[in-house]
Amino acid sequence: MTSTLHLSQVKLTPRHLERKAVIYIRQSSPKQVRDHLDSQLTQRALVERAQSLGWHADRIEVFDGDLGQSATGGQEREDFKALAAEVALGHVGVVFGWQVSRLARNNAEWYQLLDLAALFATLIGDTDGLYDPRLYNDRLLLGLKGTMSEAEHYLMRQRLNAGRLSKVQRGEYVQRLPTGLVRVADTRVIKDPDQQVQQGMELVLSKCEERGTCYRVLRSCQQHAIRLPRRHRGAPAPSALCWRHPSDRIMSSIITNPAYASAFVYGRRTCDPQRQGPGRRTPTMVRRPMEQWPCIRHDASPASISWGQCVATQER
Question: What is the tens place of the pLDDT at every residue in 63-99?
């Protein structure tokens, strides 16, 4: 500890203390922000560390606007951009993060920050000490930490995906049900007890069989001023229901959903990095062909149409 403190004092100069000390705080998801308060408190304790190294309280700034956002680069982090801008303007003497993973989970953003910090003589601080990106050994160590952070995120995703797929294969994975189907207390899936909801879904599915395309079914519903039931996303109760004018998106989501043919299907969609738009916060999802669906389990719910009808609809 004494050796680490001595090295930190050698790298730390009065010029650094004249500028700001920035404490960057981040957690990966809204659930972590809500449930893991200890992590936030631990990260905010870096304010005291900055004070112990000589920064006046007036020169310490906390950036916490990216709480609940991933650092993988898949979404825009406004506070991280503001932090990089402050470093580029020469206003920052040190950037503190509890770990490298708090600052970035991808090497593109991490090395961008390191390049700016080296150019404007800004230190990087974490739980292990202070680093000067202008020094070869410090730059090498920070680069390794960034690579390990990116690899750690990849391995975590692999483990989560493997665990989810294992539950799917065991038949224990619970999906959000489409409108018209509800899950009862013993996890069985039944048709919605509301007869109007059932009639609305069966009307659309029967017209699809009769008319052949989503567009024709949509036109028919619009001509007869038919509204369709839609359940609010994440709403657990049948009462959280609204009736909406039909649209292409609503019609397609009903007609192409295998759940109405009594099938549990996992992996109908996958993310496509090549279609990732600038500033988009979530990955672009694309449909897979039916032969590429990882899991299809029949007789998982009451059927409104046959599996043959579902396959024919998918082919169309």
Answer: 988 887 776 655 678 888 899 999 999 999 999 988 8
The ranges of the chain with pLDDT < 50 are: 1-5, 235-236, 238
The model's pTM is: 0.62
- Beta-ladder partners of 271: 285
Q: Which CATH superfamily is domain 175-263+298-315 in?
A: Putative Large Serine Recombinase; Chain B, Domain 2 (3.90.1750.20)
| Angle separating helix axes 214-223 and 248-255, nearest 10 degrees | 120
253 is catalytic: no
Please give the Cα distance from 127 to 122 (Å, whole number). 17
Residue 139 CA, chain-centre distance (Å), reads: 30
The residue ranges of every structural domain in the chain are: 2-159, 175-263+298-315
Burial of 43 (0-12, 13-18, 19+ CB in 10 A): buried
Would you give the end-to-end CA distance of the chain in angstroms? 68
Q: Which of 28, 39, 301, 304 is catalytic?
A: 28
Angle ∠(24,28,32) on CA atoms, nearest 5? 105
CATH topology of domain 2-159: Rossmann fold (3.40.50)
